[in-house]
Amino acid sequence: MDSTLTQTELNKSSKTKTDLFYDDVIAGLKSTPKRLNSKYFYDANGDKLFQELMNSPEYYPTNCELEIFSEKTAEIADSIIGDGDAFDLIELGAGDAMKSTYLLKYLVSKKADFTYLPIDISENVISYLNITLPVTLPGLKITGLNGEYFDMMEKAASISSRRKVVLFLGSNIGNMAVNDAIEFCRELRKHLSSGDMVLIGMDLKKDPKVVLAAYNDKEGITRRFNLNLLERINRELNANFDIDKFEHYPTYDPETGACKSYLISTVDQQVTINGKETISFLKDEYIYMEISQKFTIMQADQIAINTGFAPVGQFFDTRKWFIDAIWVAA
Ligand SMILES: C[S@@+](CC[C@H](N)C(=O)[O-])C[C@H]1O[C@@H](n2cnc3c(N)ncnc32)[C@H](O)[C@@H]1O
């Protein structure tokens, strides 16, 4: 037995993914106010809905970042290639890697010496990337890692000790409240060595109507994306949520930059999970589902400086709605 493992870690490692999902769901629905963790949005169905959302006219973040990656590929690549020494390109929450594929293609064409290590909690995403990328990008070295961000970063470090370049795109960082994002970046820094790099995407504050519309699209994809988590709980944890009795409610506060999604119970109701737990909802009670935080450019720099990084580069789309910033671990 590894004496460095704590009892909590041992308990965690002996639990299945379903056990952990169940524990988080029960803890979240028993807390006040009720909440669910947005990392569970992404089962196979959630991945599909997120891809649909990325193609919807209102969901601007993907197009902004796609513009940056497709128009500024060479500049981004030059910044991360540096002196040309070998590196690991680790992508946190890679999803379908649509944007990073521009960079990967360019790096392969330049014969850069790197291995791509996409990390994602969705098993579906990792097997998709492991299968498709070597076909679409011959010559790419790839090792997909299925699991939580930092667990998989530890695994990546155990595989290789090369210089690290971490991609954290799509404003995934925005799925944390600002203080949690700061804690996350501090933790990320601990997993890196001085000189390692981070390329981080952040959605910027803009016209509040534009922001809110992105999380309240006319086709109702965001609504289905949120309700899918209740359906996932029904499917995987043997629960009986009636999704017709919950309404999707997004809000945006231009002052704090917090865009939040809630599901509102439309009636007094009870839901049973796995025959073991009964959760009661009052009419109009909410479940807090997700935050999509918007930042200022100055805030992005401040987060870097306060968490052990130096901001060294900035890439914007033409409307300056989105930033991809390059940070170097100090
Ligand atoms: C909003 S999508 C963005 C995907 C991609 N980065 C992009 O920009 O299009 C978030 C992705 O992060 C993954 N994810 C969310 N929380 C995670 C966690 N704690 N650990 C690992 N992956 C996570 C999800 O499965 C999903 O594929």
From TrEMBL:
One Pfam family recorded for the sequence: Methyltransf_33
Limits of the Histidine-specific methyltransferase SAM-dependent domain: 22-327
InterPro entries with a match to the protein in the record: EgtD_Methyltrsf_superfamily, MeTrfase_dom, MeTrfase_EgtD-like, SAM-dependent_MTases_sf
Keywords: Methyltransferase, Transferase
Protein name: L-histidine N(Alpha)-methyltransferase
Lineage of the species this protein comes from: Bacteria, Pseudomonadati, Bacteroidota, Sphingobacteriia, Sphingobacteriales
